[in-house]
Amino acid sequence: MTAPAQSNPPARPWVSSHAATAQANKLVILTTPGGKRYLITLRAGQTFYTNLGHYRHDDLIGLPLGTTVHSQLGHPVLLLEPSLSDLITRIKRNTQIIYPKDAAYLVHKLSLRSGDQVIEAGTGSGGLTIALAWAVAPAGRVYTYEVRADNYQIARTNLERVGLLDNVTMYQQSVTDGFRQQGADAVFLDVRAPSHFLDQVRAALRPGGFFAALIPTTNQVSELLAALERKSFADIAVEELLLRRYKAVPDRLRPDDSMVGHTGFLVSARPITDPDDPGRWLSEERKRFAARKEFEAKVEAEEARRNAERGDDDGRPRRLPLP
User: Fold this and answer.
1) DSSP calls for 219-265
2) In this predicted model, what pLDDT tens digit does every residue of 17-31 receive, in sequence order?
3) Are 218 and 265 in contact (CB under 8 A)?
4) C-beta separation of 180 from 171 below 8 A
5) Residues 104, 58: contact at Cβ < 8 Å?
6) Phi-psi region of 289 (alpha: psi -120 to 50; beta: other; left: phi over 0)
7) What backbone torsions phi and psi does residue 218 show, to the nearest 5 degrees?
8) What is the distance between the alpha carbons of residues 41 and 91, in angstroms, rounded to a whole number?
9) Measured between alpha carbons, how far is 77 from 136 in angstroms, rounded to an integer?
10) The whole model's pTM is what?
11) Does domain 27-80 have CATH number 3.40.50.1000?
12) At what angle do helices 127-136 and 149-161 cross, to 10 degrees?
């Protein structure tokens, strides 16, 4: 299916890092004393309504960022520039989004920088797509593939809202038949069975490029690891990220009472070319395990041979003569 024509989006609506004031048609965060955060686009003549009262956009436009403002009921909020975490977690969702802790580490593992070309399979609601586009902007590009039409439309709306659609090319199609790109710097899979798509990944990646996948269960990780070995990937790693927050009380610093537990296993690898022995590039732990399994197989084979030699024709072992 041909990718839809990309319209020219408006200027990026997040506040520039050089901006000191809230600006019309830009995104801002309103934070309450209780910790609720509202991501809104400031537009002249509009009003933002909450249970704390309403806040007129015209009263916010032009104020210095970091200013405390009040509703008509007298309830304060803090006017701030949105962070990347705000953009990821406060989008419209049709699927579970990737947590910021995982998204930030994925950008690190994929070694992304401005100008890179990165492919994503499984756009979902576009949370990770935002992080990828943020990392490769302004000169790079994200090519993202999504099968479901509803996810595609929601992700497109989210990307347009945060001003990153001009750095993303979207496809509503499966990657079973491969990606349209070649020589990409990185490929990320967020699909049900990533082990089934490694040939497509190798065809799209540049030599020595970066591959990663986020997987929820251990059996899927095992399947992917075995497939990566068969397809000559190296530098293979499996990691899980746990983020523990603390109560920011100077005189009583302690962890929060609850925390987000398991969100997924991050598997990363690099495609290599070694026609003689690609297994030499596996980890030392993997090679030691393979050597141990090979030794155990030899021992079992030798025991079976000796049992066969000692057995009668009926298969029962006979008593060896005493010396």
Assistant:
1) HHHHHHHHHHHHTTEEEEEEE------EE--TTS-EE-S-------E
2) 557 899 999 999 999
3) yes
4) yes
5) no
6) alpha
7) -70, -35
8) 13
9) 33
10) 0.82
11) no
12) 50
Integer Cα distance of 322 and 301 in angstroms = 26
Query: Token pair for residue 295?
Result: 């030794």
Tokens 């007298």 belong to residue: 74
Q: What is the DSSP letter of 311?
A: B
Secondary element (H or E) of residue 100? helix 100-109
CATH number, domain 85-281: 3.40.50.150
- Matching residue, tokens 């290599």: 272
Q: Are 202 and 273 in contact (CB under 8 A)?
A: no
- Residue 60 three-state SS: helix
Q: Compute φ and ψ for 66, nearest 5 degrees.
A: 95, 5
| Cβ-defined contacts of 101-104 (< 8 Å, 24+) | 101/241, 101/243, 101/263, 102/214, 102/241, 102/263, 102/264, 102/266, 103/127, 103/128, 103/131, 104/131
* Whole-Å CA distances, 107 to 7, 53, 118: 27, 39, 10
Residue with tokens 């989006």: 9
Identify which of 191, 137, 189, 199 has the alpha carbon closest to the alpha carbon of residue 162: 137
pLDDT, tens digit (0-9, with 9 covering 90-100), for 84-141: 999 999 988 888 888 899 999 999 999 999 999 999 999 999 999 999 999 999 999 9
